[in-house]
């Protein structure tokens, strides 16, 4: 979307009462007058800073003038608005559309809630069940010679599995060849 279309979309929002005050409009006009390349000539800047005209009229005329000049001038207006009234710049309707127009963007607050609603105990319980089923499937598979490898793994794992649990698993592994 071009800056001229964005400015046309934001025009009502910017010209509504008490959005921009006299000082901010004067700063924006001065910045547009002093920026390189010069967006507003000295005569145009004086016209848009004329205190005899109402703020609404001056701002409306300024925005229409910038739209006639082209996209580069509108872009410089947005830059001046961002520098001099950042909160208002962030609240612009066109900015909100740009922020929400990316379909791949993830709403981090919602995603954080979805990932953290169970807690660590649920994760540990699921992991323990999965590890237990994998160990049981690995040890009970009759096609492979698992006994020697399982005995080596369980024999060297007192840190991972408690001694009591390890002894029960070793007894189970010793009983398998007898059956």
UniProtKB/TrEMBL annotation:
Xref: PROSITE patterns: CARD (PS50209)
**One GO BP annotation of this record:** regulation of apoptotic process
Q: What domain of life does the UniProt record list for this protein's source?
A: Eukaryota
Task: Give its localization.
Answer: Endoplasmic reticulum membrane; Mitochondrion membrane
A GO cellular component annotated for this chain's UniProt record is: mitochondrial membrane
Q: What are the TM regions of this chain, as residue ranges?
A: 120-138
Mind telling me what this protein is named? Caspase recruitment domain-containing protein 19
Keyword set, alphabetical order: Disulfide bond, Endoplasmic reticulum, Membrane, Mitochondrion, Transmembrane, Transmembrane helix
Give the quaternary structure: Associates with BCL10 by CARD-CARD interaction.
Q: Which residues form the CARD domain?
A: 38-96
Q: InterPro entries under this entry?
A: CARD, CARD19, CARD_BinCARD, DEATH-like_dom_sf
* Organism this protein belongs to: Chaetops frenatus (Rufous rock-jumper)
Q: How does it sit in the membrane?
A: Single-pass membrane protein
């Amino acid at each position: 979307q071009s800056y001229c279309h964005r400015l046309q979309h934001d025009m009502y929002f910017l010209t509504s009462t008490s959005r921009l005050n006299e000082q901010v409009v004067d700063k924006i006009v001065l910045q547009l007058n002093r920026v390189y390349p010069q967006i507003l000539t000295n005569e145009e800047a004086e016209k848009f800073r004329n205190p005899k005209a109402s703020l609404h009229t001056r701002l409306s005329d300024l925005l229409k003038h910038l739209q006639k000049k082209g996209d580069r001038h509108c872009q410089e207006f947005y830059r001046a608005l961002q520098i001099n009234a950042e909160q208002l710049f962030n609240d612009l309707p066109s900015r909100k559309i740009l922020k929400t127009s990316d379909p791949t963007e993830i709403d981090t607050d919602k995603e954080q809630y979805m990932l953290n609603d169970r807690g660590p105990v649920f994760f540990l319980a699921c992991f323990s069940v999965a590890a237990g089923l994998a160990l049981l499937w690995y040890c009970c598979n009759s096609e492979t010679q698992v006994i020697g490898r399982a005995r080596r793994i369980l024999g060297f794992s007192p840190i991972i599995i408690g001694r009591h649990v390890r002894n029960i698993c070793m007894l189970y592994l010793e009983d398998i060849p007898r059956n």
